[in-house]
Amino acid sequence: MKTKLGLLYGGKSAEHKVSLQTALAVIKALDLEKFEIHPIYINEEGRWIKGPELLEPVETVQALEFNQAGQLSPLSLAPALFHAENQEKAPLEVIFPLLHGPNGEDGTVQGLLELLNMPYVGNGVLASAAGMDKVIMKNIFAQAGLAQVNYVAFIKSEWEIAKEQTYIKVEDELGYPCFVKPANLGSSVGISKCRNRAELETAFAEAFQFDRKIIIEEGVVAREIEVGVLGNDAPECSVAGEIVPKKDFYDYKAKYEDGETALIIPAEITDHEYEEIKDMAIRAFKALDCSGLVRADFFLTKEGKVLINEVNTMPGFTPFSMFPLLWKHTGVEYPQLIERLVELARERHTEKQNIKYTF
Question: 46, 153, 262, 304: which is deepest, by most CB within 10 A?
Answer without folding.
Answer: 153
